[in-house]
Amino acid sequence: MKQQRLIGVTHYSAWSIVRNGLSGNRGWTRAWRDPAPKPAYDVVIVGGGGHGLATAYYLAKEHSLRNIAVIEKGWLGGGNTGRNTTIVRSNYMIPGNTMFYERSMRMWENLSQELNFNVMMSQRGQFHLGHSPAQMDGLRRRGNVMRAHGIDSELMDRAEVMRRLPYLDYSEKARYPIFGAMFQGRAGTARHDAVAWGYARAADRLGVDIIQQCEVTGYLRDGERICGVETTRGPIRAGKVGLAVAGHTSLLAAKAGLRLPIETHALQAFVTEPIKPFIDHVISSGAAHFYISQSDKGGLVLGGDLDGYNSYAQRGGLPEVEHTLASAMALIPCLSRLRLLRHWAGVMDMTMDGSPIIAKTPIEGLYLNGGWCYGGFKATPASGWCFAHTIATDTPHDDNAHFTLSRFERGTQIDEKAAGPQPNMQ
Amino acid sequence: MIRLDCPVCGHRDETEFAYLGDATVRRPDPSITDPGTWADFVFLRDNPRGAHCEYWQHVMGCREWLIVNRNTATHQIDSCQLARSVFAGEGTMAASS
Questions:
Q1: Which of A301, A322, A351 finishes a domain?
Q2: pTM for the predicted model, two decimal places
Q3: Are A264 and B47 in contact (CB under 8 A)?
Q4: A135 and A269 inside one domain
Q5: Which of A44, A191, A231, A331 could crosslink A238 through cysteines, CB 3.0-4.6 Å?
Q6: Do residues A172 and A242 share a domain?
């Protein structure tokens, strides 16, 4: 049965493009199946975004589990996987974050080959601008921590940044004076939708059932233990249930009786009309909390701060539109006549220390992956890999050992921004 | 744009206000030494989708602390009261759920 359904899957290659091109492109098969839910699985992952699909893929590939389902209430990658600004980087300083994100970066570098799906990984490099001598000291320290961990990082002075990014505002009156930048050359962007689709197709080829339009409404219990989920398409029993529903983690945790150190906040992103190649890298600014890059279609993709108040509305408010665009104008004045094509918002799990959670929960049978704040997209490969390890072995991997739920009570928060327990300030 | 009806200043844009989150969280009795109780107070939130009772401060206006009942899915404001009035028993604090 399993053999039969895998036979028709096309391996993507130059040869398959030529062959299908010559035959009128009628030979392509669907990239993944659309199965009805089975009554029981070994593992059910709730959430069909990048993290959930990656988790299922690595459970099947690394841990040889075959009886896995991913359950998604909408469509694949319709949440934050499809709403982020696609930036991939590994410039984290605090122990617990540094090597986790570097694991992710190393996985990104081979992800298209791993999945046989072009995720359009573009290592165009990221400049993080320093706007004061103190910020440059901070960037120097961060860069040194990265280099001590074998992660590439270069500190550039003002003259070098002027040579590389001539379009920034270097004038006397600049709102954000530029003292230099920290540059990570391996950072860049990837195609967000392709990450969900690539993981979905690769997981499906390993026998994972991907079930869309199926919302989890509760849990099946065996005493205290969670042994499955109630869904809009009927109950599904499971040996283990993993949540990967960032943005809505608190809601699904509450159904299990858990309160979490998370608030949900809206974060907006913007894309301008397409123009010719202009911004060759990812540019971010700590002072303005602003980031911008140019997509392969030519649109400038940019984003800024949270709206600032709890929100499950997947749309943003105008004050943050003004704030983000003011930041863009202050840093890159020549953007003034560009028009916005679209802007949208996703809802983030903002944790009390700005770092994620990948851990067993206090409830037997329930595993949690969430709290991604601003950082979920870049983390996708390592998040799936570590979550799969945690679910399969019941112990965290070294790279997610710090991402516990108990770190808040134990005082071992990973507060990269030193913002304290204020989710809207992280 | 959220507009809050400040009891002192009237309808004002959200940009005049600062936000401090869930107003149903209560500082535990200082004599409680159980770290779990304090961790809950500092870190754990209900984070509901829907009715949410929350603190705002009119920092660019009268500087009063306000207790606002707002829907986190629709941003509809159901009430906006002075926090000191609510704590004096003159207003009602809707449950955050």
A1: A351
A2: 0.95
A3: yes
A4: yes
A5: A44
A6: no
Quote the domain boundaries for residue A171. 122-188+263-351
Q: In which order are the strands placed within the sheet that holds A340-351?
A: A154-157, A180-184, A126-130, A282-285, A290-294, A300-310, A262-272, A340-351
Contact B21 A423 (CB under 8 A): yes
Nearest-CB residue to B72 (from A308, A310, A421): A310
Task: Residue B68: give the domain boundaries.
Answer: 3-87
Count the domains in chain B.
1
Q: How confident is the model at residue B89 (pLDDT cuts 50, 70, 90)?
A: confident
Name the DSSP letter for residue A419. -
Considering its fold, how many domains does chain A have in total? 2
Is residue A407 domain-shared with residue A292, that is, in the same domain? no
Classify residue B40: in a domain, yes or no. yes
Task: Give the residue, A328 or A288, on which the prediction is more confident.
Answer: A328
**Beta-carbon separation of B21 and A421 below 8 A:** no
Q: To the nearest whole angstrom, how far is the Cα of B44 from the nearest Cα of chain A? A: 4
Which among B36, B42, B74 has the least Cβ separation from residue A313?
B74
Answer whether residue B20 is part of any domain: yes
User: Which residue shows structure tokens 């299908």?
Assistant: A20
* pLDDT, averaged across chain B: 93
Instruction: Give A318 to chain B, closest Cα distance, Å.
Output: 6
Q: Does any domain span residue A391?
A: yes
Query: Are A317 and B14 inside 8 Å of each other by CB?
Result: yes
| For residue A87, pLDDT beyond 60 | yes
Q: Is residue B92 in a domain?
A: no
Distance from C-alpha of A39 to C-alpha of A229, rounded to nearest angstrom: 10
Instruction: Compare CB distances from B52 to A310, A317, A423 and report the shortest one's residue.
Output: A310
Distance from CA of A193 to the nearest CA of B (A): 25
* A42: CATH: 3.50.50.60
What is the sign, positive or negative, of the torsion defined by CA atoms of A15, A18, A24, A25? positive
Q: Is A384 part of any domain?
A: yes
Residue B25: CATH number of its domain: 3.30.2270.10
**From A314, which residue of chain B is nearest by alpha-carbon distance?**
B73
Is B96 contained in some domain?
Answer: no
Grouping H, G, I as helix, E, B as strand and the rest as coil, residue A123 is coil
Report pLDDT for A10: 79
Handedness of CA A57, A59, A65, A69 (dihedral sign): negative
**Single-letter amino acid, residue B83:** A
* Nearest alpha-carbon partner for A179 in A130, A138, A128, A141: A130
Alpha helix stretches (DSSP H) within A121-216: 133-148, 158-164, 192-205
In this predicted model, what pLDDT tens digit does every residue of A363-395 receive, in sequence order? 999 999 999 999 899 999 999 999 999 999 999
pLDDT of residue B94: 65
